[in-house]
Amino acid sequence: MKRTFELNFEDMMNISKKDLLLSISSSEGRTVMAETDVAKQPIVYGVSNPELAAAFGADMITLNLFDFDAPFIFGIDDKDLAISDASDMVNKSAEIQKILHRNSADRDYIRKIKNVVGRLLGVNMEPIPKNINYCEGRKLNKKNLEKASELGFDYIVITGNPKTGITNEDILNGIKEAADILGDKAIIIAGKMHGAGSDNIYDPKVLQDFSKAGADIILIGAPGTIPGLDFELCRRQISAIHETGKMALTAIGTSQEGANLNVIQDMALMSKMAGADIQHIGDAGYGGIALPENIAALSIAIRGKRHTYRRMAYSLRK
């Protein structure tokens, strides 16, 4: 089985859930995930943030704020509209609506996006509490889970954006629902990278409960990202996850994805020493993506320039 940083374009397009989990496990902590906010204009004109994250060394790209009711990725879907500011959005609203209608009816939409980005694609899905007003197309529910399976996402991430009030119980219930619907179609990643308007997770037992509920990979904050989460606590949490036979993902999701290179490198090395199987870097640098050089810095820190450059060069090899 190839390791994730050895997967080429064809591998990425056709890999099964079972083989992807084996590929991640075989990589010995050297898998890089980058999150991008697809509801924002990209930071570089003419190229989407997912493509940029891929170019700087990410193996897996997670789409944040993706709307299942109105699929649209800036930098890809608006390439013929030449939108540069808010007035363009208003003036070309009719054209945008046509694109949204077309995308909503396209069962191969995400497969086509994968063909552009050349990476494994996942999506954030949020188990929003009933008392929180939130966009329906971004919620974790039966309808959106079925769409995620149909569209061909490689994985989903059950977590919470800031101020959503998502609790540990919400995540636990979301895992159970996702496991019933997705089966062997997509990997389920679940956990918290910050409080999400509720509480941070410190108790390893909570993480084991996520695993037993059906999550394939458990998400926790990287050392130094949330108050009190140091290397030792991170190591204990990951050990508890591994005891259940599941893998662990450490996330930089507290806007530190826009920090200096040495901060990213320190977090990456501490996460690797703690036993992380995947390392995630979030979307809060500028304009819905980590600083691109920080994606590369994380990759180089945990797998060196040789494997980082391979991943960058494999971008669209068919």
Automatic annotation (TrEMBL):
Organism lineage: Bacteria, Bacillati, Bacillota, Clostridia, Thermosediminibacterales
One Pfam short name: DUF7916
InterPro entries in the record: DUF7916, RibuloseP-bd_barrel
Entry protein name: DUF7916 domain-containing protein
DUF7916 domain span: 6-317
